[in-house]
Write a structure and sequence with these properties.
The chain is built from 15 helices and 15 strands. By secondary structure, it is α/β, with parallel strands linked by helices. It binds nicotinamide-adenine-dinucleotide, L-histidinol and zinc ion. Its cofactor is Zn(2+).
Length: 436
C-alpha cells in the first residue's frame, strides 16, 4: 500500500513518470468514444435510447423527464437531506455571487474610452455524473453559477438509474432541478450525453458550451468535441485527485480520511501523500488500512490507492515543489504551518488550508466550486466559476477629441503594416473633423 518515493533521489524522468496520470495509454477509451459520438450523430435519440440500455441497463421510453415527473420524484426527499441541500445552495450562491464584478471604464487617452461588459453564454449543457455514484452536489456546482451568470437555457444530462420509472433520477437530483427551476432532465450519460449536447438531437438542443465532470468516457468526449465542433467545454474534469502535504503537525487520522475521500470516487482516482518524514507516512498507511477496511466503497477505494503513492520530502518547501509539478485537482496543506507555503502554490485546482479543512467541505457545502481540472490541467485551467458561464465583450467609444488624439498613431501603424484601408478608416474621420 502506497509505495514511497524519496524526492531528492528522483531524476527528471522518474518525476515525469510519477506525475503522468497514464490515462488511456492505449487509446482504447478514445476509440470507443469516437464510435459513440458517430452513433449519436447518425441516429440521434434512437442511439441515446439504445446506449442507455447498453451502458446503463435501463430501457427508456423517452430521453427526458418533464416538469411534472421531476416534481413527483422530488416529493420523496427527506427533510434532513432537503435542509442540507438548502444550506449548500445558499453557501455556493453566496460565494459565486461575489464573482459578478462590473469593471471600470478606462479613458486610455482623452476622448478614447475602453471597457468590458459581461454577456452570458446563452445555451449551456450541464453534465451531472451518475455512474457509480449520483452527484446532486455537482448539479448545484454547475446550476448555481449558470443562473447567476444569466444563461438563458440550461440543458441537463445525467445517466438514468435502474429501477421503477419514479427512480430514473433520485429525489435529490429532482429537488435540485426544482431549486434551479429546470424543467427537463435528459436521461443520458457518458460520451453520448456530450455528443448529444454538442451536435443536438430531436429532443436535446445543441449547446454553446458543455460543463461538468465525469469519468474517462465523459472527459475524452469533451476534449474531442472541443476540437471538432463549435461547442466549447469548461475544462477536462476527469477522475478525482488529491495531493496532501503533511508534516509533524498533521493528524494521520485526518490525512488518511482525506486520501480515502477522493479514492472512493473511482478506481482511476489518485490520492498522493507528500510527507516530511517516514514516520508520518507509516502512521498514515496504518490509518488508511484501518479506515479502508470499513468503507462501503472499499473495493473502489483500494484500487485507487493501489494506483497512488507517497513522496518523502526534506521539508514543506520541497513538498510544494513536487505538488506544483503534479498540479493536483485538490491540494490539502495538512499542517499548522500552511501559511509558510501558500505563496509557493502555482498549480492547483482548489486548496484546503490547515488540519481542520477537509476537501469534502469544498466538495459539498463551504461555497467554492468542486468542478475542477484534473490530469495536471490545473497548470493552465481554473475550476468552474461564474466566469466560466460568461463572455467578456470589449467596447470602445471615440469622441472628436479621441479621434484627434489617437488618429495619427493608428495611421502610422496601419502604414507600417502596409494596410492602406485600415489607415483610410481613421484618416477619413480625422479629415471630417478638420473640415468641421
Ligand atoms: N474533476 C471533477 O471536478 C470531478 C467532480 C466530480 C466527480 N468527478 C469524477 O467523475 C467521475 C464520475 O464517474 P462515474 O462513472 O461514476 O459517472 P459518469 O456519469 O461520469 O459516467 C457514467 C457513464 O459512463 C458511461 N460508461 C460506463 N462504462 C462505459 C463503457 N465501458 N463504455 C462506454 N461508456 C461507458 C455510461 O454511459 C454511463 O452512463 C469519477 O471519476 C469522479 O472522480 C470529477
Ligand atoms: N471530489 C469531487 C471532485 O473531484 C466532487 C464531489 C462530488 N461529490 C463528492 N465529491
Ligand atoms: Zn469528492
Amino acid at each position: 500500500m502506497l509505495k514511497t518515493h524519496i524526492y531528492p533521489e528522483l531524476n527528471q524522468a522518474q518525476i515525469r513518470e510519477l506525475i503522468s496520470r497514464n490515462i488511456d495509454a492505449d487509446n482504447s477509451i478514445e476509440d470507443r468514444v469516437l464510435s459513440i459520438i458517430s452513433e449519436v450523430r447518425q441516429n440521434g435519440d434512437i442511439a441515446l435510447l439504445s446506449l442507455a440500455e447498453k451502458f446503463d441497463g435501463v430501457v427508456l421510453k423517452k430521453t427526458f423527464l418533464d416538469k411534472g415527473e421531476i416534481k413527483n420524484i422530488a416529493n420523496a426527499i427527506g427533510e434532513t437531506q432537503k435542509q442540507a441541500i438548502d444550506t449548500a445552495y445558499q453557501n455556493i450562491k453566496k460565494f459565486h455571487e461575489s464573482q459578478l464584478i462590473t469593471e471600470a471604464k478606462v479613458e486610455t487617452m482623452p476622448g478614447v474610452n475602453c471597457w468590458r461588459e459581461t454577456r452570458a453564454i446563452e445555451k449551456v449543457g450541464l453534465y451531472i455524473p451518475g455512474g457509480t455514484a449520483v452527484l446532486p452536489s455537482t448539479f448545484l456546482m454547475l446550476g448555481i453559477p449558470a443562473k447567476i451568470a444569466g444563461c438563458k437555457e440550461l440543458i441537463v444530462c445525467s445517466p438514468p438509474q435502474r429501477g421503477k420509472d419514479s427512480e430514473l433520477v433520485n429525489s435529490y437530483i429532482a429537488y435540485v432541478a426544482q431549486l434551479l427551476e429546470i424543467e427537463r432532465i435528459y436521461l443520458v450519460g457518458g460520451a453520448q450525453a456530450v455528443a448529444a449536447m454538442a451536435y443536438g438531437t430531436d429532443s436535446i438542443p445543441k449547446v454553446d458550451k458543455i460543463f461538468g465532470p465525469g469519468n474517462q468516457y465523459v472527459t475524452k468526449a469533451k476534449t474531442i468535441i472541443q476540437s471538432s465542433t463549435q461547442t466549447a467545454i469548461d475544462m477536462p474534469a476527469g477522475p478525482s485527485e488529491v495531493l496532501v502535504i503533511a508534516d509533524q503537525t498533521s493528524n494521520p487520522v485526518f490525512v488518511a480520511a482525506d486520501l480515502l475521500a477522493q479514492a472512493e470516487h473511482g478506481v482511476d482516482s489518485q490520492a498522493i501523500l507528500v510527507a516530511t518524514s517516514q514516520e508520518i507516512i507509516q502512521q498514515t498507511i496504518a490509518e488508511l488500512e484501518k479506515q479502508l477496511a470499513v468503507l462501503p466503497r472499499k473495493e473502489i477505494a483500494a484500487k485507487a490507492i493501489d494506483n497512488s503513492y507517497a513522496v518523502l520530502v526534506s521539508d514543506l518547501h520541497e513538498g510544494m515543489t513536487f505538488s506544483n509539478e503534479y498540479a493536483p485537482e485538490h491540494l490539502i496543506l495538512a499542517t499548522d504551518n500552511w501559511q509558510l507555503i501558500t505563496a509557493e502554490i502555482s498549480n492547483a485546482g482548489s486548496v484546503f488550508l490547515g488540519n481542520l479543512t477537509p476537501e469534502s467541505a469544498g466538495d459539498y457545502a463551504s461555497g467554492t466550486n468542486h468542478t475542477l481540472p484534473t490530469s495536471a490541467y490545473a497548470r493552465s485551467y481554473s475550476g468552474v466559476s461564474v466566469d466560466s458561464f460568461v463572455k467578456k465583450v470589449t467596447f470602445q467609444h471615440l469622441s472628436p477629441e479621441g479621434v484627434k488624439n489617437l488618429g495619427n498613431t493608428v495611421e502610422v501603424l496601419a502604414e507600417l503594416e502596409g494596410l492602406q484601408a485600415h489607415k483610410n478608416a481613421i484618416s477619413v474621420r480625422l479629415q471630417s473633423l478638420i473640415v468641421d
